C-alpha cells in the first residue's frame, strides 16, 4: 500500500486535476485512469484471496438456485398426482441448501473482509501520513477542511462501498449469471423472455451513470467547502465573538451547508428516478416469462414444474439486479471519494531520485524549522559570551561533541509570500555553520517567523533555496527533515495523553528512563513529579490543565528526547513570566548545547549569547554580526538593545 501510494506519487502528478470550490483551490483529484490503476494494484496484492472469495461466492449463487428448482419439482409432482414420496427428494435438497447456505455466506463475508479491510486501512494510513507531510503552505492555501473531509467522509465512503457495495455487487452479479444459466437450461426461450428486461436496465443504468457522476463529484467538493467553512468559523471563534461578526459567519456556514445539501437532494431525486425505471424493467421481464410459460406449457414444450421454476428464478433476480444496479450508487460515490484520496497521495511532494520512499511520519514537533545563519557568513562570528558565561549570566555553551558531525543549514536569496499575496521575505541569505547559534531579531511583522519556517522546510521559498548540507529541504523525506531539524514555536500544542506520551511524540520508542532524563535535562522534573500522577498524568483536552510555560517546558523536553541536529526556537520562551522565563531560558540553553540553532526572539537576553545576530526589517536582513559588533555599530540592534536593557 505504502509503496504503491508513494511510488506512484511522483509520476502521477499529471493524472490529477487541481480543483477549486469557487473560493480557494482544493487539493488535486486523481483522474479515472490513475484511480483505476491504484485499485488494480490494490486488488493484485490480494489476488489469491480474491480467487478464493469468488469461488465461494459462485458456490453460494448455485446454492441459491436450489430453492426454485425444488419448488418446481414439488409443483410438478402435485400436477402429476404423484404420492408424498415424490416430494421427499426436493425437501431433502431444500434442507441441504439451507444447511450449506449459512456457512457459504459466512465464508464469503469473511474472505471478502480479508480482501478489503487491510487495503482500506492501508489507504487511510497512507492518506493520513501524506496529509501530515504536506507542505504547510499547501494546506494553508487549500484549507484544512478539504483534507478533513477527505480523510473522514471519503475514506468512510470507500470503506462502506468496499465492504458492503462491492460484496453485494459481486455476489449479486454471480447470482444473476447463475440464474440466467438456470433459465436457459430449463428452456432457452425462458432466458430469452427474461432478457427482454435487459435493454431497459442498460438504458436506465447508462442514464444514471451519466447524470449522477457529476452530481456526486460536485457534491463531494461542496462537502469539502462546507467542512472548510465550519472549521474556519470554529477556529476563529474568539475573534468572531470579540468583533461580533457571528451573524456573518453563520450566514457563510448556512450557505455552504445549503449548497452541500442541495447536491444531496439532487442525488436522491436522481436515484429515485433510476429505481423507478428498474421496476419497469422487472415487470416487463416477469410479464414476458409468464407469457412464455403459458405458451410453452400449453404447447407441451415445458412442464408446469419447469414454468414455476422459471418464474421463481426470474422473481429471484429482482433483488440481485437491484443490488447490482443500486450498488453503482455507492460504487460511484466511492469512486469519487477514491479519486480524491489518490489525489492527496499524489499531492505529496515529489522526492528526488534516490530519496527514501517511506511516507512521512507524524512531524516530530508541533511545527519545525531550522535556524538561519548569518547572511553571506562564511565563518561564524563568535559572540563575547560564547564558550564562557553569557552577557546576561546565562549558561555556557561547550563546542559540539566531535563524534557528531552537524550539518550546514542555509537559505540562499530566498523570497517568500503567502498564497497569491506579495512577498514578505526578500532575498534573504543565511548560513548556520555546524554547532553555531544564530539569533534573529526585528520588529513585529519583519518576517522572522516566516524565514524560520522556510529554514525548517515547512514552507518553500518562491525563489532561492533552503538547503541542509547542500540538499534542498524539499528533497528530503519529511521523516528525515523532522528528525534532523526541529522547531519549537510559541504555539506549543499538547496532545491528549500523558505527560510522558507528549514527550515521546518525536520518539515513540523512547523508554521511561529516557523520558525521565529529558525532563531532568530541561529542569522540569520538579513540577512534573508534583502533578497528581507525575509523568503519567493525563494532560491535553479533558485532562489536567497545564499553563503555557509548562507546555513550553514539555516542548523543550520533547526536543531534547528527539535529539535533532538543528533546532529552531521561535520565541519558544516568550510566553514565560519573569521566573518561568528564566527557567525556560536555562532549559533552552541546555537543549541547544551541542547543536546548531536559530533563535527567533524579542527578548534580547536570548540573543546576546548567539554567535551571530541578524536584524530583520520589512522582510530583509539589514544588520548582522556579533552582539558586540552590532552594539558598536550603533544601528537598529544597538537601539533595540539600549531600549531593552534600560532599567524601567
Ligand atoms: N499565515 C500567514 N498568512 C498571511 N500572511 C502572513 C502569515 N504569517 C505571516 N504573515 C505576514 O507576513 C509578514 C511577516 O510575518 P512574520 O510572522 O514572519 O513576522 P515576524 O517578524 O515573525 O513577526 P512577529 O514578531 O510578530 O512574530 C507579516 O506582514 C505578516 O502579516
From TrEMBL:
Main location: membrane
Cellular compartment(s): Cell membrane
Membrane topology per record: Multi-pass membrane protein
One MF term in the entry's GO annotations: ATP binding
Keywords noted in UniProt: ATP-binding, Cell inner membrane, Cell membrane, Membrane, Nucleotide-binding, Transmembrane, Transmembrane helix, Transport
Region spans: Disordered: 353-405
Domain named ABC transmembrane type-1: residues: 51-333
Transmembrane parts of this sequence: 48-74, 86-107, 166-184, 190-209, 278-297
Domain ABC transporter: from-to ranges: 406-643
PROSITE patterns: ABC_TM1F, ABC_TRANSPORTER_2
Compositionally skewed regions (Low complexity) per UniProt: 353-374
Name of the protein in its database record: Putative ABC transporter ATP-binding protein
Lineage, top ranks: Bacteria, Bacillati, Actinomycetota, Actinomycetes, Kitasatosporales
Amino acid at each position: 500500500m505504502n509503496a504503491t501510494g508513494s511510488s506512484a506519487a511522483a509520476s502521477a502528478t499529471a493524472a490529477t486535476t487541481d480543483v477549486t470550490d469557487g473560493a480557494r483551490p482544493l487539493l488535486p483529484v486523481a483522474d479515472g485512469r490513475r484511480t483505476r490503476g491504484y485499485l488494480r494494484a490494490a486488488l493484485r496484492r490480494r489476488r489469491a484471496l480474491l480467487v478464493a472469495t469468488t469461488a465461494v461466492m459462485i458456490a453460494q449463487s448455485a446454492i441459491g438456485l436450489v430453492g426454485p428448482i425444488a419448488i418446481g419439482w414439488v409443483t410438478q409432482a402435485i400436477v402429476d398426482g404423484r404420492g408424498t414420496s415424490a416430494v421427499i427428494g426436493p425437501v431433502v435438497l431444500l434442507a441441504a441448501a439451507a444447511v450449506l447456505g449459512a456457512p457459504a455466506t459466512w465464508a464469503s463475508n469473511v474472505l471478502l473482509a480479508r480482501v478489503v479491510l487491510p487495503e482500506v486501512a492501508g489507504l487511510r494510513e497512507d492518506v493520513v501520513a501524506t496529509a501530515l507531510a504536506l507542505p504547510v503552505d499547501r494546506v494553508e492555501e487549500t484549507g484544512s477542511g478539504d483534507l478533513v473531509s477527505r480523510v473522514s467522509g471519503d475514506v468512510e465512503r470507500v470503506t462502506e462501498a468496499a465492504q458492503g457495495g462491492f460484496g453485494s455487487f459481486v455476489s449479486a452479479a454471480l447470482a444473476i449469471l447463475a440464474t440466467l444459466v438456470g433459465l436457459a437450461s430449463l428452456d432457452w426461450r425462458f432466458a430469452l423472455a427474461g432478457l427482454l428486461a435487459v435493454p431497459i436496465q442498460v438504458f436506465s443504468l447508462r442514464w444514471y451513470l451519466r447524470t449522477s457522476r457529476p452530481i456526486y463529484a460536485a457534491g463531494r467538493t461542496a462537502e469539502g467547502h462546507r467542512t472548510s467553512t465550519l472549521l474556519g468559523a470554529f477556529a476563529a471563534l474568539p475573534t468572531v465573538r470579540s468583533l461580533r461578526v457571528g451573524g456573518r459567519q453563520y450566514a457563510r456556514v448556512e450557505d455552504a451547508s445549503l449548497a452541500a445539501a442541495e447536491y444531496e437532494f439532487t442525488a436522491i431525486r436522481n436515484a429515485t428516478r433510476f429505481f423507478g425505471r428498474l421496476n419497469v424493467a422487472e415487470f416487463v421481464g416477469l410479464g414476458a416469462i409468464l407469457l412464455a410459460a403459458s405458451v410453452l406449457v400449453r404447447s407441451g414444450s415445458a412442464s408446469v414444474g419447469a414454468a414455476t421454476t422459471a418464474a421463481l428464478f426470474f422473481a429471484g433476480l429482482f433483488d440481485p439486479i437491484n443490488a447490482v444496479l443500486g450498488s453503482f450508487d455507492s460504487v460511484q460515490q466511492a469512486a469519487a471519494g477514491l479519486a480524491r484520496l489518490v489525489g492527496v497521495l499524489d499531492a505529496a511532494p515529489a522526492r528526488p531520485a534516490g530519496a527514501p520512499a517511506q511516507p512521512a511520519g507524524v512531524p516530530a514537533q508541533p511545527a519545525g524549522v531550522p535556524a538561519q545563519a548569518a547572511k553571506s557568513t562564511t565563518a561564524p562570528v563568535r559572540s563575547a559570551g560564547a564558550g564562557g558565561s553569557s552577557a546576561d549570566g546565562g549558561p555556557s555553551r561547550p563546542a559540539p561533541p566531535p563524534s557528531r558531525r552537524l550539518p550546514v543549514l542555509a537559505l540562499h536569496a530566498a523570497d517568500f509570500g503567502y498564497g497569491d499575496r506579495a512577498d514578505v521575505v526578500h532575498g534573504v541569505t543565511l548560513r548556520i555553520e555546524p554547532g553555531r547559534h544564530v539569533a534573529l531579531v526585528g520588529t513585529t511583522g519583519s518576517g522572522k517567523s516566516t524565514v524560520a519556517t522556510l529554514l525548517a522546510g515547512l514552507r518553500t521559498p518562491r525563489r532561492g533555496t533552503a538547503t541542509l548540507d547542500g540538499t534542498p529541504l524539499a528533497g528530503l523525506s519529511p521523516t528525515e527533515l523532522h528528525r534532523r531539524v526541529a522547531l519549537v514555536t510559541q504555539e506549543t500544542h499538547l496532545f491528549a495523553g500523558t505527560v510522558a506520551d507528549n514527550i515521546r511524540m518525536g520518539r515513540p520508542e523512547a523508554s521511561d528512563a529516557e523520558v525521565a532524563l529529558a525532563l531532568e535535562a530541561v529542569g522540569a522534573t520538579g513540577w512534573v513529579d508534583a502533578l497528581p500522577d507525575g509523568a503519567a498524568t493525563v494532560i491535553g483536552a479533558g485532562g489536567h490543565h497545564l499553563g503555557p510555560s509548562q507546555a513550553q517546558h514539555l516542548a523543550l523536553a520533547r526536543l531534547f528526547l528527539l535529539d535533532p541536529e538543528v533546532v529552531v526556537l521561535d520565541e519558544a520562551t516568550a510566553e514565560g513570566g519573569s521566573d518561568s522565563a528564566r527557567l525556560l531560558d536555562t532549559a533552552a540553553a541546555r537543549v541547544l548545547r551541542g547543536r546548531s540553532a536559530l533563535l527567533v526572539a524579542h527578548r534580547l537576553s536570548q540573543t546576546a549569547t548567539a554567535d551571530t545576530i541578524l536584524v530583520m526589517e520589512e522582510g530583509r536582513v539589514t544588520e548582522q554580526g556579533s552582539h558586540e559588533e552590532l552594539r558598536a555599530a550603533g544601528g537598529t540592534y544597538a537601539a533595540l538593545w539600549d531600549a531593552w536593557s534600560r532599567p524601567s
